[in-house]
Write a structure and sequence with these properties.
By secondary structure, the protein is of the alpha/beta class. Strand 6 and strand 7 form a beta hairpin.
Length: 205
């Protein structure tokens, strides 16, 4: 037999969530598409863990990344979500976007970690073919940050997360002990996970 240890949703009907009460059930949300009242509804429906797509607090960075929320929206969403999910709240940040400085990246980390977040996902920007950023890069290959700058940003990430007692448990994820994402740990260890729905990815052997 098999058992469910975690589930990761962008959206799921309550009827499905009823089957997953023994799991760590994570929902991904954006500051622009969720509200304080919706966080309580998520938890009542069976969501046990929330991940917010903050990406950056820098206005220019948000425009470059095509986000439609503001820094104020992000901070408000963080506070509202933390009031509902407490230590089971995570947030995503992206570094390496065009013209970003190391100090700006440090500012993003400090702003987020000052909220006593127990889990953080950090991703280096990738230029995927066909996207708007990829098309911009083809026109101006100098917009991509130098490897030395990206390495310095990673060093700053390690420094700031360590200062807030977050441990790196996976290539892009940091948490306090006991607040790791089971889903992230599962695929990092090469274990099975099932993807259900259009565009979902799974590994089941």
């Amino acid at each position: 037999g098999c058992c469910c240890s975690s589930s990761f949703f962008f959206f799921s009907p309550p009827s499905l969530l009823l089957l997953l009460r023994s799991c760590q059930v994570t929902l991904e949300a954006n500051p622009s598409s969720s509200s304080a009242s919706s966080y309580s509804s998520f938890k009542a429906a069976g969501i046990t863990r929330l991940s917010l797509g903050i990406q950056t607090f820098d206005p220019r960075g948000l425009r470059v990344l095509g986000r439609d929320h503001t820094a104020a929206d992000a901070l408000s969403s963080l506070d509202a979500a933390q009031a509902v999910f407490g230590p089971s709240l995570s947030a995503d940040l992206i570094y390496g976007w065009p013209a970003q400085s190391v100090e700006q990246w440090r500012s993003d980390l400090k702003t987020l970690l000052s909220r006593d977040l127990q889990h953080l996902s950090v991703y280096e920007l990738t230029y995927k073919p066909g996207t708007a950023l990829w098309k911009m890069l083809r026109k101006n290959n100098k917009m991509k940050l130098e490897d030395e700058v990206l390495l310095e940003m990673q060093a700053v990430t390690d420094e700031e997360t360590h200062a807030h007692q977050l441990q790196r448990y996976e290539i892009s994820n940091y948490s306090t002990v006991g607040q790791e994402s089971r889903h992230n740990a599962q695929y990092w260890r090469g274990l099975d996970y099932v993807g259900v729905g259009p565009g979902a990815h799974g590994r089941f052997m």
